[in-house]
Amino acid sequence: MTTTIAQPSYLEGKKGLFSWIFTLDHKRIALLYLYAIIAFFLVGMTLGLLMRLELLNPGKDLVEPTTYNQIFTLHGVIMIFLFIIPSIPAVFGNFFLPLMLGTDDVAFPKLNLLSWWLYVLGAVFALATLVFGDGPADTGWTFYAPYSVKTGTNVTMAVMAAFILGFSSILTGLNFIVTIHRLRTPGMGFNQMPLFAWGLYATSWIQLLATPVIGITLLMIVAERVFGIGLFDPSIGGDPVLYQHMFWIYSHPAVYIMALPAMGIVSEIIPTFAQRTIFGYKAIAYSSMAIAFIGYFVWGHHMFTSGMSGPAAIIFSVLTFLVAIPTAIKVFNWVATLYKGSIDVKPPLLYALAFIFNFLIGGLTGLVNGALAADIHVHDTYFVVGHFHYVMFGGTGFAFFGALHYWFPKIYGKLYNIRMANISFAIFFIGFQLLYFPMLVVGLMGMPRRYYDYLPQFHVPNVVSTVGSWILATGILMMIANLMVAYWKGKKARKNPWHGITLEWQTSSPPPLHNFDKMPEVNEKGPYHYKNAMDQ
Amino acid sequence: MEHSFSLPNSGHNFDAEASKLGMWLFLFTELLLFGGLFLVYMVYRSLNHEAFIEASHHLNVWAGTTNTIVLLASSLTVAMSITALQQGNKKRSLLLLTITFIAAGVFLVIKYFEWSAKFEHGLFPGMEHYSQLPTGERLYFYLYFFMTGLHGLHVIIGGIFLAVVMVKIKSGKVHKDRISLLENGGLYWHLVDLIWIYLFPLFYLIH
Amino acid sequence: MENINTHTPQVAVSQHISSYKLLFTVFAGLILLTILTVLVSTTFTFSVSLAVALALMIASTKALLVAYYFMHLKYEPRFYKWMVIVVLALFTFFVIMLTIDYFTR
Ligand code: HEM
Ligand SMILES: [Cu+2]
User: Fold this and answer.
1) CA distance A476 to A415
2) pLDDT tens by residue, B139-164
3) Superfamily for B19-204?
4) Given CB atoms, is A310 within the 8 Å cutoff of chain C?
């Protein structure tokens, strides 16, 4: 037997810019994504604050109407394609999937680097819309035809950005599926896999099988603009509703690209901080697959008012209600896990609980949108804007920051100030509710979305919302500052500060270059079998 | 740098099964990429039935049939070249791949002549004749150029892929016991064939 | 340390070798089907929708042959077949829903 020589951590080792931007190490690639994604989040947030500022009072205050349209489009494109879709898979999936499976990298490290560079290229395209021609697209992030074919703004470039980012996402998904199939450590079957890995597995299938459809649709928009003649323009026999079909065939499943990894994160955080075996492991794991599958069948609920046929609308409405079932299963299981657990309230758990709370509101308002009759009333109002911010931001966004707090000690080997983290969480959470709850209200009152202006009777909720946006931004900046301070000055973290038992906690913090210095030990009874838990 | 411990299932090991699985997954994305186009085709065809039939008379069935046979033959030779290399017959494998490569060229040449005939008739989107066609026929030609164009691009990519494989077989990097790259090149090539199998009847044979 | 598992993942996967004869037979079938589909479309002009249905059935048979024999799907583990089925099922669902929408407008 040979003695193991301790490897340097992945953060030490090679130095210099190139050792980062051309690294094949999944952990370094994950950090590249992390920095880029947080940067884009802050840009998107600034745009959001700008919109809220314009909406503080009715009438034109700050920006021209067209500029406002460009701002919400850019905000949407950045938040969707550059922030939320890659967020959890590209950062925490890349970093922790191999660690949780007990291996040293993803199946195709070079492909992983390619994904990262495609992401960069897509981002460059998205930002380039700012400086060329008539500026960023003003179509909304949905690029609906025929307006997207007719407007003079930089739709072509924005659409190309989405296309390229789509390929980045496809390749990440492909990589994860193969990794999960081929690189699990000996002794780890599918049913010994952590639930985050299950969430990523389901997500990856969506990335793989839904993204190409939007890819080709966006190419058609490009061709239509370039050749000046097209497919979706009704004046030559095209059908704009068909564009909407093609767009949502991808974009509804994309909602689950956002949600499933977030649910995976919550399923990691809750058992760790309840120190208790997760309730209904298989139900949670398989419901991820069910959600991914059913998610393909409901896209039409975005088109109830677009001129789709009655029977089709009814079928889509019914199918939409089906998705609520596996989602509810998960929520019940999380709550059941917390029940009678020895709960240790730390920042990651707070974020996880906030996820459940916000996702519940997002989900329930989603049912209102999914019900054919109700949607006719709320479609294209601020109710929808409130709804999807609750799901994407309140759900996935909070899970993303929760994951950051959960794994920060592992990633950097440093501890952050827990008190500061709690305070900034509280401000963030309160700001969030103030920002978005009024949107639900004002939407029900009838305020339409995507306008720089509104009628005077909507004034009060809009003021609350804008003040909320300032509070939220304060909370977020405090949170990021707290983590940055920890990075520079934080106390050294131990291997396993939260007493987690999935494999990533068996290696040092930060992990060595090849992840493990000795063989990780798989718990045969499943990944959350706490030996000294109260109920055993 | 030395470290005495390394994991048995490393992402840096070569794993033939992983590379095959990865390739199949990639093929699924390609299938759905074209799938999207087929959906658009289906809808417009059902809305413009007569016009599609009318427009399809502009295509040359014999050119299409020849190309179908050329592609099928090239699929056969790729499959055979895999068998040859599995049996250790490097020379025959290379020969068969060369034939495939040539077939790809023939396919593209025929396609080129077909396209230029359409160009001469001004049937390319944006040209004068095209703009005077009824809307249904315009949709047909738009889809025709888009779909066969994208397919042609895949033929080119597939050809380059196979050329790379040939170089690697020659240099001995791809051989009997490490055949994944050839197999993946073959899978990709068959996919190109598969898509053509549907494009052919949908555009050429609908009258 | 006894729990260090020293097995390396399979480098050489058990390969199936298709004989030239089998490949040729499949090829002959493909050519026959091609001729058949051309004949059907040029001679049977009585019913367009029937002709389209026939053409698609023949194309699907050809596709199946290519996938099964040329692409070795026949010899792959069951998981591969399931993947193909899921992909086709999704696509079929897209087709069905679009058809319902456009034919009930
Ligand atoms: C950080 C604070 C944020 C603020 C203040 C904010 C604010 C807004 C506002 C006011 C709108 C509505 C514009 C309109 O319809 O006139 C909007 C739209 C939108 N937001 Fe946010 N948002 C924020 C964060 C996010 C996040 C995190 C995401 C995604 C994860 C997101 C995704 C979107 C999308 C997709 C739209 C629709 C754009 C469109 O209509 O095309 N936002 N946001
Ligand atoms: Cu949806």
Assistant:
1) 18
2) 999 999 999 999 999 999 999 999 99
3) Cytochrome c oxidase, subunit III, four-helix bundle (1.20.120.80)
4) yes
